[in-house]
């Protein structure tokens, strides 16, 4: 059985989120939630929200009620780059500096161990 959750248009760079996703790949859901809860990074809150959504999606299926929580693991977790917001700031000598505000799409896929 499989469940997918996506957080789209997250106002954070994909590189920052990838660092957190590397910590939780191929781990049990409970262990991953503990890692995310105690991580000091801001990206961990975004990933934790997506993971909780994936767990809720997993248990929406009536067959999933029989599966214990410790048998669910993170099959895949990845982040894609979303649209970039461009802002302009005046610089010295009349130039314009471009500021890129990057966004991300986080995807988490859960599976059971059976």
Rough shape? elongated
Measured by DSSP, the beta-strand proportion falls in: 35-45%
Low-confidence stretches: none
- Structural class comes to alpha+beta
The CATH architecture classification is: Alpha-Beta Complex
Number of domains: 1
Portion of residues within helices: 25-40%
How many strand segments?
Answer: 5
N- to C-terminal distance: 8 Å
Q: Provide a count of the helices.
A: 3
- What topology, given as strand order, has the largest sheet? 1-5-2
Architecture blueprint of SSEs:
Blueprint: E1 2-10, H1 14-24, H2 29-37, H3 43-58, E2 72-81, E3 85-90, E4 96-101, E5 104-112
Antiparallel strand pairs: 1-5, 2-5, 3-4
Helix pairs in contact: 1-3, 2-3
What does this 3D model show about the protein?
The chain is an alpha+beta fold. The chain has a single domain (2-112), classed as Ribosomal protein L22/L17 (Ribosomal Protein L22, Chain A), CATH 3.90.470.10. The chain contains three helices and five strands; from the N terminus they run βαααββββ. The strands form two sheets. Strands 1-5-2 form a three-stranded antiparallel sheet, covered by helices on one side. Strands 3-4 form a two-stranded antiparallel ribbon. Helix 1 crosses helix 3 (43-58) and helix 2 packs antiparallel against helix 3 (43-58). The longest helix is centred in the middle third of the chain and has 16 residues, at 43-58.
């Amino acid at each position: 059985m499989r469940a997918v959750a996506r957080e789209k248009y997250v106002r954070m760079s994909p590189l920052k989120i990838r660092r957190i996703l590397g910590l939780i790949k191929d781990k049990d859901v409970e262990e991953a939630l503990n890692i995310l809860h105690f991580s000091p990074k801001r990206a961990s809150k975004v990933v934790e929200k997506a993971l909780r959504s994936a767990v809720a999606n997993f248990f929406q299926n009536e067959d999933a009620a029989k599966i214990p929580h410790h048998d669910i693991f993170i099959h895949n977790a990845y982040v894609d780059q979303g649209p970039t917001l461009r802002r302009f700031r005046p610089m010295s000598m009349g130039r314009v500096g471009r500021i890129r505000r990057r966004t991300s799409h986080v995807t988490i896929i859960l599976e059971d161990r059976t």
